[in-house]
Amino acid sequence: MKITTLKLGSLLTATALVSVMAACGNKETKTETTPAKTSTASVTADDKIVYVNSDSLLTKYEYFKDLKTKMETKGKAAETDLTAKQQAFQREVQQYQQQQGTLSADQRAATEQRLGRKQQELQAYQQNAGAALQNEQAKEQEALYNKVADFLKGYAKTKGYKMVLTYAKGNSAILFADESLDVTSEVLKGLNEAYTKDKK
């Protein structure tokens, strides 16, 4: 009996969440600027459009860091669980293969049917576990997007900005923006302060 070994792919949470931030920009307006210093001193209410560097935002936003760790831990736990179940099943198959010469035709047929059902159950378990992780990841990505979008909505209203764009390296829409319009560090400070309050 040939056993198909299926593995849960490791979660690329960081990559997925970077794409969420890019999507955040797509829902507003995509922007590409030259890499900028995070100086906000010269940004005034007269500057109706500002931008946030999503690369910096994701690497320095504490909520994102915690979320990434959480999803990686869950992904590893699911993989470990699946590997243990696969190994137990493979041991059963090896045991059957060693004993099959001493079994009657009826016993062999019954054992092979039982092992076939177990293999199907294992494959279904793997698919369900993968789907559950993907669903949870999608919910977490939505929560991340909502946290950032809600914060930016209030931030823009307070500052009098008409639009907050997102910049990500390699995601080109605008070739240049004055670095004085980069409000990343101010946004990061506000997001991290809000997240610290939420954790308490």
Topology:
Elements: H1 13-27, E1 30-31, E2 49-53, H2 54-60, H3 62-99, H4 105-159, E3 163-167, H5 184-199
Parallel strand pairs: 1-3, 2-3
Helix pairs in contact: 1-4, 2-5, 3-4
Signal peptide: 1-22
Coiled coil: 79-142
Keywords: Coiled coil, Signal
Architecture overview:
The chain is mainly alpha-helical. It has one domain. It is 66% helix and 6% strand. It contains 5 helices and 3 strands, in the order αββαααβα. Strands 1-3-2 form a 3-stranded parallel beta sheet. α1 packs across α4, α2 packs parallel to α5 and α3 packs antiparallel against α4. The chain is rod-shaped. The termini are far apart. It comes from Pedobacter albus. Keywords: Coiled coil, Signal. Belongs to the Skp family. InterPro entries: Chaperone_Skp, Skp_dom_sf. This is OmpH family outer membrane protein.
Strand order of the largest sheet: 1-3-2
Main sheet specs: 3 strands, parallel
Instruction: Give the overall shape.
Output: rod-shaped
**How many structural domains can be distinguished in the coordinates?**
1
- First-to-last CA distance: 55 Å
Count of strand segments: 3
Give a nutshell description of this structure:
This protein is mainly alpha-helical.
